[in-house]
Amino acid sequence: MRAPCFFSPEGAGNSPRGVARSLDVAYPTTYYNGATDADAATPIPIKGGDQLQADIPLNPVPALHLVIHVPNDGQQGFMHAVFQNVFRSE
Questions:
Q1: Does residue 47 surpass a pLDDT of 80?
Q2: Total Cβ atoms within 10 A of residue 46
Q3: What is the pLDDT of residues 6-40, one digit of tens each?
Q4: Separation between Cα atoms, residue 34 and residue 83, nearest integer Å
Q5: E-assigned strands of the chain?
Q6: What SS3 class is residue 61?
Q7: 35, exposed or middle or buried, with CB in 10 Å at 0-12, 13-18, 19+?
Q8: CA 81 to CA 75: how far, in whole Å?
Q9: Neighbouring C-alpha atoms within 13 Å toward the C-beta of 14
């Protein structure tokens, strides 16, 4: 039996206990020139021996809390993983 996985809208905006709301943030994957989408990123041309500095500002966004209820059926080693592919291979 699969454990139910859901997001409860009424819980949106509620910080975990002991965390100030202003600190309950996440930072999205950010690329050069401030883009948060890989297709909108600005390429950085660099050749061997070059030295450069690239400033990438990070902007916090409200965190999202995903609640996964795991049945207590005595099984050990239960784990979930979340992945996001950002570059497409062609």
A1: yes
A2: 10
A3: 444 445 556 666 667 777 889 999 999 889 888 89
A4: 22
A5: 5-6, 25-26, 61-62, 67-68
A6: strand
A7: middle
A8: 18
A9: 10
Q: What are phi and psi for residue 25, nearest 5 degrees?
A: -130, 170
- Joined together, the tokens standing for residue 1 give 């039996």
For 13, which DSSP code?
T
Report which residue type is found at 68: I
pLDDT for residue 1? 42
Q: Which two tokens stand for residue 72?
A: 């207590």
Q: Which two tokens stand for residue 54?
A: 């690239």
Structure tokens at 11: 């819980």
